[in-house]
Amino acid sequence: MSSLEIKKLHKNFSNYHAIRGVDLQIEKGEFTVFVGPSGCGKSTLLRLIAGLEVVTSGSILLNDQDITDTSAAERDLAMVFQSYALYPHMSVAENMSFALKIAKVDPKIIAEKVADAAEILQLTSLLDRKPKALSGGQRQRVAIGRAIVRQPSVFLFDEPLSNLDASLRVQMRQELSGLHKRLKSTMIYVTHDQVEAMTLADKVVILNAGNVEQVGTPLNVYYNPASRFVAEFIGTPKMSFIPMSDDIKKLIANEYDGADPRKLTSSTWLGVRPESVTLSSQLLTKAGLTGKVSLVERLGAETLVYIDYLGEHKITARADSLASIEAGADIQFSIDFQNVHGFDDDGLRLSPDVTDNLIVGNV
Amino acid sequence: MNLTLSQRKKVSTWSLGLLSWIVALVIFFPILWMVMTSFKTELQAISTPPLFMWEPTLENFSVVQERSDYFKYAMNSVITSFGATFLALLIAVPAAYSMAFSPSKRTKDILLWMLSTKMLPAVGVLMPIYLLAQSTGLLDNVFSLIIIFTMINLPIIMWMLFTYFKEIPKDILEACRMDGASTFAELRYIVMPLSWGGIASTGLLSIVLCWNEAFWSINLTAADAGTLTALIASYSSPEGLFWAKLSAASTLACAPIVVFGWFCQKQLVQGLTFGAVK
Hints:
Number of strands of chain B: 0
Number of strands of chain A: 18
Number of domains of chain B: 2
Oligomer: heterodimer
Number of domains of chain A: 2
Strand order of the largest sheet of chain A: 6-7-8-3-9-10
Shape of chain A: elongated
CATH superfamily of the largest domain in chain A: P-loop containing nucleotide triphosphate hydrolases
CATH topology of the largest domain in chain B: MetI-like fold
Structural class of chain B: mainly alpha
CATH topology of the largest domain in chain A: Rossmann fold
């Protein structure tokens, strides 16, 4: 188990500033997920940690040892690639034992370790196959096995599940989570899929344009997003944003008897999650806000309703599976202002944190 | 004519087949004629109309062997072509590796510049190279031929290896680096095994090119280091043309490489048509 520290890290490509001063602390045994939209620098950050890219400025410390100028081969980190990157001319067993063979480990010990890893990953019957004779999920397992066998200080995963089909992805996600519980190793995982981030992470690092936007536990990030960017990125369906207006100010005053504990009235934008929106069909009292239904998506278990509010602003709401709502109809809805966040012009959150005891596993 | 689609297909397949046979025969005919002539007497060789039926004789071959030791020339050909190919691969593998996997801004220019050296007419540098060989005492010496053949073929070998190496996904090399492999281990365990077919066909092509090289071996060698091409050339000048003997010498010179090529056909075709599909 190892800890990792990143200090004032910068990376410039010829004319592109990919990483812009990242500071980050990753504790021993922690499962950290870097998440963000494509081009946010999450893969670059991982490759800098791996040593596959050269740092422009700043430093990386592994167990308090500076490894900024250490080559990838000497960092003792293992990486699982999106493309699996298996050695096509080697069998599964050879793929998994390659690193140990290079390190001149005793063949007996290698055989033991490979057998152990193969058992964990259910690869025992496939050890003699070549990668081309394996399915996508099996290849992914071999790539993970190649990392496990080495017992590295840190595991690095670069979007390892994005080449798998949806159902396999869910299965591998659960297996990875189990693997982390079993090995208790430090793992860093890059993904653009916020569901993977939410389900796997002890700590989520949300990146935007080469900067860290927020670091926290998945639920903390979900309930207390630091900025509009994070609020919009984490959670499906996305958080909706509506501009502050006199109508809404009145509703807020009604709700809180004139007080404003969540600093909503001084905000320019309100961030509303679908679960905070209640549609009039399910309301007993008067709703307060009116919009036009632009789209209804029936997912089976629930129905997503997209409402045009004041013309251009889309609000997403959840409704019952069989709710009788049609696109084009006018609809009344209310907002639960207890769970709404206010954001200022710069996209920063003004509302105080949602009470701590609501959040499971808060750090 | 009203033909159904399948009939028309048959006709076109058939006529294409016929056409390729004709083309193949036209290309092959000079070689066939050379081999036939080598089994004729000098008189039969120049008779008009040309003879297609005659009693074959081995006389020319024994004359050639008497006049000059065929095996010595063949040995020189083997030494120079294998030696130059080995040396060129030794230089080109690491060079192509670095150009393919850590290219700089100028890599493309370097590749083009290397190829441009192939556009220079060899005779343009005959004088300086001849004088260099003379002053270093390397005239009529296999080493000078090995060095020159290496330099002649290096651009083509580099280009071919470069394209083969380019085919290896970068991720695999990065995975290898993450596994703790040094650059040498990377070459030894990953790059070389993955591009083995490419390296082999590049080597084969280089051997064939060296074997057939005539300009430098004729100009820089005589009796000691002469290769088979120099041997053939010696039959075309001093005492007039002796077609039958010339043909016998040529047949002897071509035979080893033809046999060699026949065995390595698969590799060669794979190498030369590489990149045509995909």
